[in-house]
Amino acid sequence: MEIYIIGASFAGISCALHARKLYPNAKITIIEKNTMVGFLPGGLLLYLQNKFEKLSDAVFVTEKQLEAQSINVKLSEVLLDCHPEKHEITTNKGNYHYDKLILASGSEQKSMNIGLEDDDEWDPSFKNYDLSNKILDQIQNAESIAIIGAGQAGIEAASTFVDLKKTVHLIEAMDYPLFKYFDPDFLVPFLSTLKQQPNLYFYLNTTVTEVAKDKQYEILLDGQTVVSDYVITTVNVHPQLAAFTKKFQLHSDNTIQVNDYLETSAKDVFAVGDLIHSPFQIRDESVYLPQINHATRSGVIAAENLLKQEVKFTGGLRTIGTKAFGWYLASTGLIEEEAFVYKNEIAVKNFTQPFSLTDKTTIYCKVVYEKSSERLLGMQLLSKADCLEKINTAALAIENNMTLDELMQNDHFFQAEFTNVMEPLNRINLESEDRHAF
Ligand SMILES: Cc1cc2nc3c(=O)[nH]c(=O)nc-3n(C[C@H](O)[C@H](O)[C@H](O)COP(=O)(O)OP(=O)(O)OC[C@H]3O[C@@H](n4cnc5c(N)ncnc54)[C@H](O)[C@@H]3O)c2cc1C
Questions:
Q1: ipTM of the complex
Q2: CA-CA-CA-CA dihedral for 356, 359, 361, 362, to nearest 10
């Protein structure tokens, strides 16, 4: 069997590795337009934080590791067209016949028409190695940087640049940052830290109309101009728009339509990762979930289904965990702000507890649940202690339709340095204040 995979990132590589295990005799080839495989999308920031010695070390897999698994990697090669009727693809280097084709060409951020598109020195995004390498010197030398978009990537970038003593202008169209994952009331302690940063200037409810470059970059906002040494965009990602995608049925946002088994409208062609919509496990609809864990799992499930429909892809819950400005932030599932998208009435609970018996750092918790059944639908966590891992337990509870009473009985470890007497999920339904003494 001849398997071709387009895109050597999380979805494509996880698919290739799992396919290698399932089909030992298959010939597996990955086609990647960049010059290296497996670069971490936040690799530039991690390098600037001295977490890696070289920028090129910020990878989750290497070409060598793939080749050791007999996975053939073709770098600097771009898929130009697909011919599903002939089981053929065309790249800038030739035509290939496939038995199974997996489209894993992911997403990009270059969606803004802000006037600098023809400037060769400027690249707004740093998602892949080539882009990160291209802008590295400019980022390092910049004393001031404007960031357009205060989602997870924008907030992480702002935190990194502020730590590096740069002046940061953070511009966001919504009225608070991280709006996809958190309710505004829940973020109050975090927002108050942001306000105290002397080098951070926040522009909320603000859209960028144009960016011009003279000696510095001039960012025109509604009614004011911000001047900075560099500008990056960390706005929403979108599927890579390429001519070949038109060969498949698409959603209105240009994601490729797939069935439960990740098959596209063309026989023997699958699509995975940031190219597709997936079921959002607590809403009866599919949504765009551009996240690494989602991409990786979808790659694995596509590999499972290459020969016949074996395993349905179950989608995700938009689970995130991050650290910025000294705070650990995590979220999964539904937030109160999007209650209108849920079919039934919801309720929420806010509570706090110390991280452990020896570390009294507060963990702020908010849960969203279905009012009638008390089924858990979402959880948000915020703390200066590392509580991130707890969000994965909450995600598992939501996936398993657990109610607050059932969670009260959920088994967790206790160790005085690392836990409280009861874990946040155990205690949601313990109403009485005196039982909340710990
Ligand atoms: C700055 C930033 C930070 C992020 N941090 C996180 C995070 O911490 N956690 C998280 O969960 N998510 C994060 N994300 C989102 C995450 O990057 C994506 O969800 C994930 O990379 C999707 O993986 P993928 O394999 O589907 O696609 P991608 O990672 O987009 O990879 C697609 C690959 O296909 C290649 N390609 C595209 N078109 C072609 C073509 N025509 N021919 C050949 N090759 C092609 C591309 O070069 C690329 O290597 C971040 C995103 C950004 C922009």
A1: 0.99
A2: 20
